[in-house]
Amino acid sequence: MRKQMLEELGLLPRWERRSLSSSVQHVAEPEVSEQPILPSQAATASAIVPQPPLNEAVIAKMSWQNLQEIVSTCQQCALAAERTQTVFGVGDREADVFLVGEGPGSEEDRQGEPFVGPAGKLLDAMLASIELRRGQGVYIANIVKCRPPQNRNPQPEEARVCLTYLRRQLALVKPRLIVALGGVAAANLLQNDVSVGKLRQRLHDYEGTPLVVTYHPAYLLRAPSEKRKSWDDLRLIRRLIASTP
Fold first, then answer.
1. Average of pLDDT values for 194-213?
2. How many other CB atoms sit within 10 Å of the CB of residue 208?
3. Could you tell me which residue, 88 or 42, shows the higher pLDDT?
4. Is the distance from CB of 205 to CB of 107 less than 8 angstroms?
5. In this predicted structure, what is the pLDDT of residue 8?
6. What PANTHER family does the entry give (predicted)?
7. Is 79:127 a contact under the CB 8 Å cutoff?
8. Signed CA dihedral, 137, 96, 36, 162: sign only
C-alpha cells in the first residue's frame, strides 16, 4: 500500500530515507515559481444582498453549528453571487493537523467539500504517505469559502472576510500543526509575499500554533518535478507531529 502511494506521488525511484531525528535545515536552491501569491486582478462586480459587517467578537464565540450556518448564507463579498454553495471545510474536528488551501474549484463548488478533484486525489496520496488520512487526525479548509471566478486567486478583501471564519475554525480544532498549501494560503496566514520556495522547510508561527508551508497539490500536478521537495516537506510534517506535545 505504501509503495503504491509513493508511486502516485512520483517519489518511489531514488528517494533516500533520512533520520526523523535530524534537525530541519533550509538549503537555498532555485525554485520553480508558483503563480503570484497576492492577486492583483479586480474582483468581478456582482450584485449581492448587502449584509452588515462581520462582528468578529461574536464569531470568535460561535459553535461549529452556528459558524457553519453563517458561512452557508454569507454575502459579505462578490464571490457569493456566483457560487453554487459554500465550501466550509471537512475532517476531524479534533485534528492534530489543519491543512489550509486556497479556495474551492469547480468540483469543490459542486460538491461542497474541499480538495475533491485531481488535486484532492494527490493530497490524499500525500497524506497517506506519512500515515495520515482525510477525516482522521486531519482537518481541511481553504482561505475562502466560495469559488473565485475562473479559479483566480482570492482578492484581499475576499480573503479578509473569510479569514474571520477560518480563524474560528482553527480555534475550535486547536491543531498541533497548521500546513499552508501553496502561496495564497501562506501569504494570507503569514501576512507576507515571500515565495513558497523560501518559506518551506522552516517552522513558522500562526497566533501561537506552529505552521509549515509546502506546495499546493494543484501546483505539483503542473510541476511534477517539484514532488521531490514536497516529499521532504511531508517528512518534516511527520517529524513535527511526532515531536509536538
1. 97
2. 5
3. 88
4. no
5. 53
6. TYPE-4 URACIL-DNA GLYCOSYLASE, TYPE-5 URACIL-DNA GLYCOSYLASE
7. no
8. positive
Please compute Rg for the chain using Cα positions: 18
pLDDT confidence of residue 120: 96
Please enumerate in sequence order all residues whose Cβ is within 8 A of that of 108, keeping only pairs 6 or more positions apart, or say none: 87, 114, 115, 116, 117, 120, 147
Mean pLDDT over each residue of the chain, to the nearest integer: 85
Rounded to whole angstroms, how far apart are CA atoms 123 and 242? 20
Q: Please say whether the beta carbons of 79 and 148 come within 8 A.
A: yes
* Alpha carbons 69 and 67: distance in angstroms, whole number: 5
Instruction: Tell me the domains of the chain and their CATH numbers.
Output: 50-243 (3.40.470.10)
Q: Give the integer Cα–Cα distance in Å for 57 and 48.
A: 24
The pLDDT value given to residue 151: 87
User: Exposed e or buried b for every residue in 42-68, given b needs 16+ CB within 10 A?
Assistant: ebeeeeeeeeeebeeeebeebeeeebe
**Helix crossing, 64-72 with 156-173: angle to 10°?**
160
The three cell numbers locating residue 234: 511531508
- Identify the band that residue 84 occupies on the pLDDT scale cut at 50, 70 and 90: very high
Cβ atoms 164, 59 nearer than 8 A: yes
Residue for grid cell 510534517: 237
Amino acid at 2: R
